């Protein structure tokens, strides 16, 4: 944003004014930079008709300027007092008298030296990324990425907080040398919570795939809310956040008694960056047992256990938490004006570019470690708890029917390092080689089934193994879509949006739908960035997936055989 004002210089003090600015204090220059001020110009209008004053016209650019913090700093106060003898100032603050000017025209505006960006901290179960999006166009400019992991050590497997935090800081510090990071948006996987005691963790952040949480299964099942209230299915391991908290409260009662706040995973990182605590609905409503999505309030379980008292204020998704902590700004070279946003659950971030579309219903397939299928404006009455169906909560706070399975993880387990062609896919279909669910324990309609491959006595070549993986995830997606209240239009986001075999197979199986692949490679990061900057031009570039007529007859027979077998599971 450009700011412009007019100030008033005493007659005869023109040379002194210029001299003082030629010798601008370095600490003041640094203060202005830290608040994101750039392209600062002051022009003098020596008004001969006015014997009392000359006019100074000042313009500068800044995003999300905190004018109060800028003015309150001691260096700013000293500068104003220093200039008070040569220009009109206010009493008693010495702040220059300045009248704001309204912009009425601009032409051929040049970019500043550093491109202004939104940095998106995107923490998935498998990978951690920081994506830089152009602050005006939303174009992806840079991705920094590393593999995520778990610390398998006492007191239980937990998130590797220290290594993640060090990587985040090192990466931001490196990027800040080349880009002006005006804001940071956050998106993370769900089923993860931080138990805080003041500014520190009271307990390590538990890994949701820890089987030990199931030790309390019977006790927890006796107190958890009905599906009709929470729309959270009963999930294995720690995938229900309520089960995690229940287990920690029982097994670590001393530490848990000292917990004074609960921070969901996106908001934990927002707190680390800004020092401000908040709660937010997309993570609260992500199969947690803690939220009533139809009434938009904490669940009866959360109230009974008095956990609701430990959550900070529930803020609107995409709200500003504040600016970056001053000590972090100095350490990392970020502007003091860098705004931190409160974060969003990653699958719901994929919906953000579409929730403002005018169509009545829209189904989005978000693919990563999890394949999450959600229908915007869909009906909840089709949800079946035993099929791992649930109501997620979108960025507008609306209950959104959802089904998911661990598609990315299963695909990784089935595939080889060789890429499959449609010829390899045809080989799988012709020989009736079947992958029967499930190959991951985390969830999905067949989470309690043991995955197996019916190979008809054939040994698959590497590319054929990858073809089987493509066929399997397409069949599972098709099966899940049939269980859903899905729309005529289905948009595939994330990893599978670049898998041509997957898209072709899905288009062949679902002639009742138009299947589109998002060409926006940012996926969840793009949605998080859009929440933080409503002016971004993220409309989503889509390409229509086409059915291959040659494989469709084979695929129809193969699909029916697979469906018959899964019907027996």
TrEMBL record:
<dbReference type="GO" id="GO:0016301">
    <property type="term" value="F:kinase activity"/>
</dbReference>
<protein>
    <submittedName>
        <fullName>L-rhamnose mutarotase</fullName>
        <ecNumber>5.1.3.32</ecNumber>
    </submittedName>
</protein>
<dbReference type="InterPro" id="IPR011008">
    <property type="entry name" value="Dimeric_a/b-barrel"/>
</dbReference>
<dbReference type="InterPro" id="IPR049382">
    <property type="entry name" value="FGGY_C_2"/>
</dbReference>
<keyword id="KW-0413">Isomerase</keyword>
<dbReference type="InterPro" id="IPR043129">
    <property type="entry name" value="ATPase_NBD"/>
</dbReference>
<dbReference type="Pfam" id="PF05336">
    <property type="entry name" value="rhaM"/>
</dbReference>
<dbReference type="InterPro" id="IPR018484">
    <property type="entry name" value="FGGY_N"/>
</dbReference>
<feature type="domain" description="Carbohydrate kinase FGGY N-terminal">
    <location>
        <begin position="118"/>
        <end position="352"/>
    </location>
</feature>
<dbReference type="Pfam" id="PF21546">
    <property type="entry name" value="FGGY_C_2"/>
</dbReference>
<feature type="domain" description="Carbohydrate kinase FGGY C-terminal">
    <location>
        <begin position="361"/>
        <end position="534"/>
    </location>
</feature>
<dbReference type="InterPro" id="IPR008000">
    <property type="entry name" value="Rham/fucose_mutarotase"/>
</dbReference>
<dbReference type="GO" id="GO:0019301">
    <property type="term" value="P:rhamnose catabolic process"/>
</dbReference>
<dbReference type="GO" id="GO:0062192">
    <property type="term" value="F:L-rhamnose mutarotase activity"/>
</dbReference>
<dbReference type="Pfam" id="PF00370">
    <property type="entry name" value="FGGY_N"/>
</dbReference>
């Amino acid at each position: 944003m450009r700011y412009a004002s007019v100030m008033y210089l005493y007659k005869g003090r023109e040379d002194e004014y210029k001299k003082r600015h030629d010798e601008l204090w370095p600490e003041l220059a640094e203060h202005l930079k830290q608040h994101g001020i750039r392209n600062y110009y002051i022009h003098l209008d020596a008004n001969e008709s006015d014997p009392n004053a000359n006019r100074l016209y000042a313009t500068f650019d800044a995003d999300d300027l905190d004018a109060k913090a800028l003015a309150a700093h001691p260096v700013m106060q000293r500068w104003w007092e220093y200039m008070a003898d040569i220009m009109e100032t206010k009493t008693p603050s010495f702040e220059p008298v300045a009248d704001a000017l309204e912009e009425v025209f601009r032409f051929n505006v040049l970019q500043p030296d550093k491109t202004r960006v939104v940095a998106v901290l995107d923490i998935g179960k498998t990978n951690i990324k920081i994506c830089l999006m152009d602050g005006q166009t939303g174009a992806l400019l840079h991705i920094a990425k590393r593999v995520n992991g778990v610390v398998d050590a006492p007191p239980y497997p937990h998130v590797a907080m220290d290594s993640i935090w060090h990587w985040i800081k090192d990466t931001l510090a490196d990027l800040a040398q080349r880009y002006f990071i005006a804001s940071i948006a956050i998106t993370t996987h769900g089923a993860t919570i931080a138990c805080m005691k003041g500014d520190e963790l009271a307990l390590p952040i538990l890994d949701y795939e820890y089987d030990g949480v199931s030790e309390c299964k019977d006790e927890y099942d006796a107190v958890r809310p009905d599906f009709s209230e929470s729309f959270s299915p009963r999930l294995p391991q720690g995938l229900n956040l309520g089960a995690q908290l229940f287990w920690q409260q029982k097994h670590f009662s001393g530490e848990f008694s000292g917990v004074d706040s609960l921070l969901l995973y996106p908001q934990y990182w927002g707190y680390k960056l800004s020092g401000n605590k908040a709660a937010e609905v997309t993570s609260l409503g992500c199969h947690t047992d803690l939220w009533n999505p139809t009434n938009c309030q904490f669940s009866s379980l959360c109230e009974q256990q008095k956990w609701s008292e430990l959550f900070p204020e529930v803020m609107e998704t995409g709200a500003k938490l504040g600016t970056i902590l001053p000590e972090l700004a100095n350490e990392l070279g970020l502007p003091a004006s860098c705004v931190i946003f409160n974060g969003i659950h990653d699958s719901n971030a994929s919906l953000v570019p579409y929730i403002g579309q005018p169509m009545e219903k829209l189904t989005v397939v978000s693919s990563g470690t999890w394949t999450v299928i959600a229908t915007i404006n869909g009906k909840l009455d089709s949800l079946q708890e035993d099929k791992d169906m649930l109501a997620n909560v979108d960025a507008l706070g609306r209950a959104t029917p959802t089904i998911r399975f661990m598609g990315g993880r299963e695909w990784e387990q089935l595939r080889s390092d060789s890429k499959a062609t449609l010829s390899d896919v045809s080989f799988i279909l012709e020989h009736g080689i079947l992958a029967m669910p499930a190959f991951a324990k985390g969830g999905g309609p067949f989470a309690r089934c043991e995955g197996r491959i019916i190979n008809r006595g054939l040994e698959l070549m590497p590319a054929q193994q990858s073809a089987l993986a493509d066929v399997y995830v397409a069949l599972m997606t098709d099966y899940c879509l049939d269980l859903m209240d899905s729309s005529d239009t289905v948009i595939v986001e994330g990893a599978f949006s670049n898998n041509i075999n997957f898209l072709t197979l899905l288009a062949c199986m679902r002639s009742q739908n138009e299947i589109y692949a998002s060409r926006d490679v940012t996926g969840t990061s793009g949605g998080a960035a859009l929440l933080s900057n409503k002016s971004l031009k993220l409309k989503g570039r889509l390409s229509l997936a086409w059915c291959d007529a040659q494989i469709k007859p084979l695929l129809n027979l193969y699909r029916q055989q697979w469906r018959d077998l899964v019907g027996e599971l």
